[in-house]
C-alpha cells in the first residue's frame, strides 16, 4: 500500500466487480498524483534529490486528508511521459500524414540513417518530403497497405528499402492522432543472419520456449516463472532476467531470477509502487515490449512541422527515449541495457465471463500482472523480430498465469469451504459458540492471520498474536464510535485507520478484520506488519554499510518499501472477506437460536437414504453404464449407445424395485418425491437409449464371447449389413484380415477391464457397399459391467475416418490436386482454412463459408490471426485474448513442423452463434520439402459429442481440483508432524524413566513411518510391483517395531474388545537387527489392522516371531506370524494381493499389496493360512544381525 490511503472496508462482504474497479481506479489516480510530485521534486532538485527522504515524507503524510495534488503538475508529468520529443539513437523516426504520406515530423538522425549522401542534388529529408522519394515503390506500397488495417501492429515489422544507399530497414508502424508514426531500425544480416521477417515468422524464435512451457504439468506458479526466465535468458542472451510481480497494492516483487555468474541477486526484492510509475504501467499495456540499448547514449530530438493541430504521441514508439530518472537508476545498478516485456492477464472478476451463445460485446478487463525484465552490463541491441517473439512468449506466459490463478482459486475456495463446513458442524453440535475458538479447526484457519479473538458478552477469548483483553475492549469502543453502524470492518493499518491506540500495539499487530454478530458478540482477526514476512538476500544488514540516499538503487528501493509498509499488514483480499462474511451469517443464525433437526427427523432421513442405497442399485448400473460410455469418449469420438445395449426388462425391473421399496416408506411426502425422481430417471434412460440407437457415428457391442449383440443404424449404412445379419456373429469375421490381431487384442484387453482408446481398424463392406472398399474406424472400447462389477461385454464407439484419410492423403502429397478438395462442395469435406508462412489467409473452402457465414473473398489475403480470427475486430470473433494467443501457438507450431491434433477451438460466426469445434493444424510443404504454410481442419461435433466433451471436461476439472487439494494436504500435514516431533523430543528431555520413555519413542517411530508414507505419495505408481521403494539399512530392535505397529491398532482393538498378545521372550525381542525397521513396522501395522478388522468381537490377535540363520549364514531369516480368530480375510481381498489388476481393490487389499511389494524387496513374502476358527498371516523377510554388520 505504498503512498496511498489504507485499504479499509466497512462491510464484511467483498466488493462487487464495479466497486472493485472503482477502488482500483481511485488507487491509480492517487498513485499517479504521487508519481507526478516525486517527478517534479526530481526535476527541481537536481543533485540534491534525496529519494529516501521523499519516501519517508510521503509515508508520514499519506494518511492525512489532502487534495490530489496540483492538476498542472499531473498534466505536465503525463505529457512528459507520453509526448516527450526524444528517441534513442539505435534507429530513426518518421511521422507521416495519413492522406498525403508527406513527412510532418522526423528525428534529427533520419537523414544520416536513410540517405547515402548529403549532396545538394540528392533528395533531402525535411518537413513536407514524400516518402516515395526515400523508399522503393514496393516499400511505399507496403506502408500504404498498413493504413488499411485497424491494428497496424499485425504487419510489424515491414521491410522497407532505402532508394539511395539500398539498405534495408525494419519499419515498425503505429498510429498516432492524424499521423502514421514509423520507427526505422537497420536490418543487420551480418550480425543476425537467422532473423526472419514478418510477425508470424518472428514467432518461430519462441517455438522452443513455448513448447517448454506447454509441457509443464501445471500447479506451480514458481516452476512456471522459473521456466520462463530461463527461456528468455537463453533466447535473448542478457546477463540477468527477472520476473516481476505486482501485488494488489501495486508494489512489486522479484519472484524469479536467473543471472550470469557473479551478479548480485535481486530475487526476493520488494520495491515501492512509485519505482514503476502508473503512467509507465499504462504505456506497458499499450506497447508490451520496451528496449533500452544504451542508457549512456545521447537521445535524439524530434523535429516537427510548425502549426500542427495535434501533438504526435510517442507512447507506441519502440524508440521512445527513457526518462532521465530511469536512466540514472539503470546507471546506478550497472545495467547499461534492458529489455522489458509486459505480462497482461484477465481480471477474472465475477461477471466477466461471456456466455457461449452471446458474442463478446467488448474487450475483457485486463490488468498488468507483472513484467519480464532483462538487464545487461554493456550496450545490447536485440532486433525487432526477436523482440516480437519475446512479446509472444510473454503472452503465452500470461495465459499460463491465468490458468494457475484459476487453479489456485479453486484450491483456495475448497480449503475455505472445508473449514467453514467444519466450523458449522462444530457450532451445530456444540451448545456454545466458543467451539470456534477452542476446537480444531478454529477461526484462525479460516483466513491467513497471526491472531484472532472472540468477544462474547463481556469476556474475551484470544488465539495466537492477539491484543490483550483491555486492548480488545478499547478497540471495540473505538469501533462503536467511529463505525457504529458497520457489521464488518477491515484495514491493513490501524494507525492509518485512525485508531489512537494503534501505536501501543506495536508492529506485531498492524491490521485487523472484524465481523459483528451482535452488539456484544464480535470476532476479530489480526495481522502483523508486512515486513515480517519479507526477506531479500541483497539487503544490507550492517548498520555501518549504508547506501547513499541520493543514489536510486534496488537496496534503496527495498528500504523505501520497508518504510512504506511500516505499521501495515498484507491487504485483506476479497475472498478472505467473503469467508468472514459467510462465517458471520453462520454465527448469526447460531446465536439467534437456530436449532438443529430433531432426532426423529434425522432418523427419517436415514431411512430414506437407506432405501435409496438399497433399492436403486440396478437403475444406477444402467444409467452409470451410459454415463461411463459418454465419459470414455475422446474427441472426435462420440459417446452414444446402440440397440440392445440396455436391457429393457432389467431397466424396468430396477425401476419397479425402487418404486416398490419407496412405497414401503412410512413417510408419504418422501415417497412421492422419490417416485418423481425415479420417473425422471426412467425418462432420461429412455431418451439416452433412443439417442444412442440413432447416433450419427458407428457403434457396436459384443458379449463376453466376442459375439455381436449391438449394431447401430450408422453401421448399417456404412457396411451394408443389417442388424439381423450381424447379431450373433463373431466380431472377428466382420473385420479385414489386416485388422484381425488389432481387434482381437483390443477385445481381449477390454474383457479384462483395460479399455483401449483411439484404436484404428478396417471393417468389411457388403451388398451395395462392397465396391466402396473397407471402412476405416478409430474406436474406443468401453467395458460393460453387471451389478457386481464383472465385465460381461464391450461397447465400441467409433469415428468413421475413411473420408478424412482420403482428404489427408491428398493434402500430404505435394503434387496432389489439393485445391480440388478445398473447393469441392461435397458435404463430406470438412471445413478447411489455411495460411501462408507470413500468416496471411490463403485457403478458405466452401465448408468454412457455410460454417462461418464469411465468403472466401472476404477473408483471403487478410491476416489469419488479427483480421479473420480475433477477440475484438476479427471477422470470426474469439472469446478472449487468451484464445487468440492459443491460436497463434497452434499456427506457429505447425509452421515449425509440429502438428496439432484435436485441439479445442471456438468462435462466433457471422450470425453471432458460438461454434465449438476441434481443430487440427498441419504444416504444408512445398516441392523442396520446406514448410511454407499451414492447413487447418475443423471438426464440428454433434450435440451428443458436445455433451460428452462437457461431461469429460467437468470430470477432468473435478479430478484436477481433487489432486491439487490432495497436494495441499500432503504439504500441510508436515506442520503437525513437525509439532509432533518437537513434542516427543521435549518429552525425552524431561527425565523420564525407561518405561516412560517407551511412549515418546513409539510416537517418534510412528512419525517416521508417516514421513515415509508421505514421501511415497509423491509417486503415482506405488501400488505397482515395478515401483522401487527406498529401503534404509540401519540398526533397530524388534521390540520397537512391534510396539510401534501395535500402538496403531489399539483403538480399533478397544472398539471390538480384542486383545493383542506377543508370544516371545523379552531377550529375543531386544535382539539388534540391521535393515529398514520403519518399513517393517509399516508392514506389520497394516497386517495387524487387517487382522483386527476381520476378527470376531471379543477375540484375540497373537504375534509370534522367529529368527534363523539362512543356509549361507551371512543373514537372518525373520518369520512373523499374526494369528487372529474368526472367519478370516475374504477371498477376493487375498486373491487381489497376487494380481496385477488393482483397479477396484479396497483399502485393505491395497495395504496388503504394498506390504507384499515391500517384503519382496526384503527377499520375503506374505502367506495366509486359514483354519477352522482361526487364520494366520505368515510374513518372511531377510535381515542382518547388527553384530555381524559391525564385524564386517
From TrEMBL:
Q: What does UniProt give as the signal peptide span?
A: none
Quaternary assembly? Homodimer.
> What CDD domains does the annotation carry?
PAS (cd00130)
Question: What is this protein identified as?
Answer: Phytochrome
Histidine kinase domain residues: 968-1185
Assigned keywords, A-Z: Chromophore, Photoreceptor protein, Receptor, Sensory transduction, Transcription, Transcription regulation
**Which residues belong to any copy of the PAS domain?**
684-754, 817-898
Q: Which family does it belong to?
A: Belongs to the phytochrome family.
Amino acid at each position: 500500500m505504498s503512498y496511498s490511503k489504507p485499504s479499509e472496508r466497512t462491510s464484511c462482504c467483498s466488493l462487487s466487480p464495479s466497486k472493485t474497479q472503482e477502488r482500483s481506479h481511485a488507487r491509480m489516480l492517487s498513485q499517479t498524483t504521487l508519481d507526478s510530485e516525486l517527478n517534479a521534486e526530481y526535476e527541481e532538485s537536481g543533485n540534491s534529490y534525496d529519494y529516501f527522504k521523499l519516501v519517508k515524507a510521503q509515508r508520514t503524510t499519506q494518511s492525512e486528508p489532502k487534495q490530489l495534488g496540483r492538476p498542472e503538475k499531473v498534466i505536465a508529468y503525463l505529457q512528459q511521459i507520453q509526448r516527450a520529443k526524444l528517441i534513442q539513437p539505435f534507429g530513426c523516426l518518421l511521422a507521416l500524414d495519413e492522406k498525403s504520406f508527406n513527412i510532418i515530423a522526423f528525428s534529427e538522425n533520419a537523414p544520416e540513417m536513410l540517405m547515402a549522401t548529403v549532396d545538394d542534388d540528392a533528395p533531402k529529408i525535411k518537413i513536407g518530403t514524400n516518402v516515395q522519394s526515400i523508399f522503393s515503390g514496393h516499400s511505399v506500397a507496403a506502408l500504404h497497405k498498413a493504413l488499411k488495417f485497424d491494428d497496424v501492429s499485425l504487419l510489424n515489422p515491414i521491410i522497407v528499402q532505402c532508394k539511395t544507399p539500398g539498405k534495408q530497414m525494419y519499419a515498425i508502424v503505429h498510429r498516432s492522432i492524424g499521423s502514421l508514426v514509423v520507427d526505422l531500425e537497420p536490418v543487420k544480416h551480418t550480425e543476425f543472419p537467422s532473423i526472419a521477417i514478418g510477425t508470424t515468422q518472428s514467432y518461430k524464435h519462441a517455438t522452443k520456449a513455448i513448447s517448454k512451457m506447454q509441457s509443464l504439468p501445471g500447479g506451480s506458479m514458481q516452476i512456471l516463472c522459473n521456466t520462463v526466465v530461463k527461456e528468455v535468458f537463453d533466447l535473448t542472451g542478457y546477463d540477468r532476467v527477472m520476473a516481476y510481480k505486482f501485488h494488489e497494492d501495486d508494489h512489486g516483487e522479484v519472484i524469479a531470477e536467473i543471472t550470469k555468474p557473479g551478479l548480485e541477486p535481486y530475487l526476493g526484492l520488494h520495491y515501492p509502487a512509485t519505482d514503476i510509475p502508473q503512467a509507465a504501467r499504462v504505456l506497458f499495456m499499450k506497447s508490451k515490449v520496451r528496449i533500452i540499448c544504451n542508457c549512456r547514449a545521447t537521445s535524439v530530438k524530434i523535429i516537427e512541422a510548425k502549426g500542427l493541430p495535434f501533438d504526435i504521441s510517442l507512447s507506441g514508439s519502440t524508440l521512445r527515449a527513457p526518462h532521465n530518472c530511469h536512466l540514472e537508476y539503470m546507471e546506478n545498478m550497472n545495467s547499461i541495457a534492458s529489455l522489458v516485456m509486459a505480462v497482461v492477464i484477465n481480471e477474472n472478476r465475477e461477471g466477466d465471463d461471456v456466455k457461449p451463445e452471446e458474442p463478446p460485446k467488448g474487450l475483457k478487463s485486463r490488468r498488468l500482472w507483472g513484467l519480464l525484465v532483462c538487464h545487461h552490463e554493456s550496450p545490447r541491441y536485440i532486433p525487432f523480430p526477436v523482440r516480437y517473439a519475446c512479446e509472444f512468449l510473454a503472452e503465452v506466459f500470461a495465459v499460463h498465469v491465468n490458468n494457475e490463478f484459476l487453479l489456485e482459486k479453486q484450491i483456495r475456495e475448497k480449503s475455505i469451504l472445508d473449514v467453514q463446513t467444519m466450523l458449522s458442524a462444530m457450532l451445530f453440535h456444540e451448545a456454545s459458540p466458543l467451539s470456534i475458538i477452542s476446537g480444531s479447526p478454529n477461526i484462525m484457519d479460516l483466513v491467513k492471520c497471526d491472531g484472532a479473538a472472540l468477544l462474547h458478552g463481556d469476556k474475551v477469548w484470544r488465539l495466537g498474536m492477539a491484543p490483550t483483553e483491555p486492548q480488545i475492549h478499547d478497540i471495540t469502543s473505538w469501533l462503536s464510535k467511529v463505525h457504529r453502524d458497520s457489521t464488518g470492518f477491515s484495514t491493513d493499518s490501524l494507525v492509518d485507520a485512525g485508531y489512537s491506540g494503534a501505536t501501543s500495539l506495536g508492529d506485531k499487530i498492524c491490521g485487523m478484520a472484524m465481523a459483528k454478530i451482535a452488539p456484544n458478540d464480535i470476532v476479530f482477526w489480526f495481522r502483523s506488519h508486512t515486513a515480517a514476512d519479507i526477506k531479500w538476500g541483497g539487503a544490507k544488514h550492517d548498520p555501518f554499510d549504508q547506501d547513499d540516499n541520493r543514489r536510486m538503487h534496488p537496496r534503496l528501493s527495498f528500504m523505501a518499501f520497508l518504510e512504506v509498509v511500516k505499521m501495515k499488514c498484507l491487504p485483506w483480499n476479497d475472498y478472505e472477506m467473503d469467508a468472514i462474511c459467510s462465517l458471520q451469517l453462520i454465527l448469526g443464525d447460531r446465536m439467534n437460536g437456530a436449532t438443529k433437526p430433531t432426532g426423529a427427523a434425522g432418523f427419517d432421513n436415514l431411512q430414506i437414504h437407506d432405501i435409496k442405497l438399497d433399492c436403486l442399485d440396478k437403475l444406477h448400473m444402467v444409467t452409470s453404464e451410459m454415463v461411463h460410455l459418454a465419459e470414455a469418449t475422446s474427441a472426435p469420438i462420440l459417446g452414444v449407445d446402440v440397440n440392445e445395449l440396455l436391457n429393457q426388462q432389467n431397466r424396468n425391473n430396477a425401476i419397479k424395485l425402487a418404486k416398490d421399496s419407496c412405497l414401503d416408506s412410512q413417510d408419504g411426502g418422501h415417497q412421492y418425491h422419490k417416485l418423481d425422481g425415479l420417473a425422471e430417471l426412467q425418462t432420461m434412460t429412455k431418451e439416452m437409449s433412443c439417442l444412442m440407437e440413432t447416433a450419427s457415428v458407428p457403434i457396436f457391442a459384443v458379449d463376453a464371447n466376442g459375439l455381436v449383440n449391438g449394431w447401430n443404424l450408422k453401421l448399417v449404412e456404412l457396411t451394408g449389413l443389417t442388424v439381423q445379419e450381424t447379431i450373433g456373429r463373431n466380431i472377428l469375421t466382420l473385420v479385414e484380415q489386416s485388422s484381425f490381431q488389432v481387434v482381437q487384442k483390443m477385445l481381449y484387453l477390454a474383457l479384462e477391464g483395460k479399455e483401449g482408446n483411439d484404436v484404428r481398424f478396417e471393417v468389411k463392406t457388403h451388398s451395395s457397399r462392397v465396391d466402396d472398399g473397407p471402412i476405416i474406424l478409430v474406436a474406443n472400447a468401453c467395458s460393460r459391467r453387471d451389478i457386481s462389477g464383472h465385465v460381461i461385454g464391450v461397447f465400441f464407439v467409433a469415428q468413421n475416418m475413411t473420408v478424412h484419410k482420403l482428404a489427408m492423403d491428398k493434402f500430404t502429397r505435394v503434387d496432389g490436386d489439393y485445391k480440388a478438395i478445398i473447393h469441392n462442395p461435397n458435404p463430406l469435406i470438412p471445413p478447411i482454412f489455411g495460411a501462408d508462412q507470413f500468416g496471411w489467409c490463403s485457403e478458405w473452402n466452401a465448408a468454412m463459408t457455410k460454417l462461418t457465414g464469411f465468403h472466401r473473398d472476404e477473408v483471403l489475403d487478410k491476416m489469419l490471426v488479427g483480421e479473420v480470427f480475433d477477440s475484438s475486430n476479427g471477422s470470426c470473433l474469439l472469446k478472449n485474448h487468451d484464445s487468440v494467443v492459443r491460436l497463434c501457438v497452434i499456427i506457429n507450431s505447425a509452421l515449425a513442423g509440429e502438428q496439432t491434433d484435436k485441439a479445442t477451438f471456438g468462435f462466433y460466426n457471422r450470425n453471432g452463434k458460438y461454434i465449438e469445434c476441434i481443430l487440427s493444424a498441419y504444416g504444408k510443404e512445398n516441392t523442396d520439402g520446406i514448410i511454407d504454410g499451414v492447413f487447418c481442419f475443423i471438426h464440428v461435433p454433434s450435440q451428443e459429442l458436445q455433451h460428452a466433451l462437457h461431461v469429460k471436461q467437468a470430470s477432468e476439472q473435478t479430478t484436477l481440483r481433487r489432486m491439487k487439494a490432495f497436494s495441499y494436504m500432503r504439504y500441510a500435514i508436515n506442520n503437525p508432524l513437525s509439532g509432533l516431533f518437537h513434542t516427543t523430543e521435549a518429552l525425552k528431555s524431561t527425565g523420564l524413566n525407561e518405561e516412560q520413555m517407551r511412549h515418546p519413542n513409539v510416537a517418534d517411530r510412528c512419525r517416521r513411518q508417516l514421513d515415509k508414507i508421505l514421501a511415497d505419495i509423491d509417486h503415482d505408481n506405488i501400488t505397482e510391483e515395478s515401483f522401487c521403494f527406498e529401503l534404509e539399512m540401519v540398526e533397530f530392535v524388534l521390540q520397537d517395531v512391534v510396539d510401534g505397529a501395535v500402538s496403531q491398532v489399539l483403538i480399533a482393538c478397544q472398539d471390538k474388545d480384542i486383545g493383542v498378545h506377543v508370544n516371545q521372550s523379552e531377550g529375543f525381542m531386544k535382539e539388534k537387527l540391521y535393515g529398514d525397521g520403519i518399513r517393517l513396522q509399516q508392514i506389520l501395522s497394516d497386517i495387524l489392522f487387517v487382522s483386527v478388522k476381520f476378527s470376531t468381537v471379543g477375540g484375540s490377535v497373537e504375534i509370534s516371531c522367529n529368527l534363523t540363520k539362512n543356509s549361507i549364514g551371512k543373514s537372518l531369516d525373520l518369520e512373523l506370524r499374526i494369528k487372529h480368530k474368526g472367519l478370516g480375510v475374504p477371498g477376493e481381498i487375498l486373491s487381489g494381493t497376487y494380481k496385477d489388476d488393482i483397479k477396484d481393490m479396497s483399502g485393505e487389499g491395497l495395504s496388503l499389496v504394498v506390504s507384499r511389494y515391500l517384503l519382496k524387496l526384503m527377499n520375503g513374502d506374505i502367506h495366509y493360512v486359514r483354519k477352522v476358527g482361526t487364520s494366520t498371516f505368515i510374513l518372511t523377510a531377510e535381515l542382518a544381525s547388527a553384530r555381524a554388520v559391525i564385524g564386517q
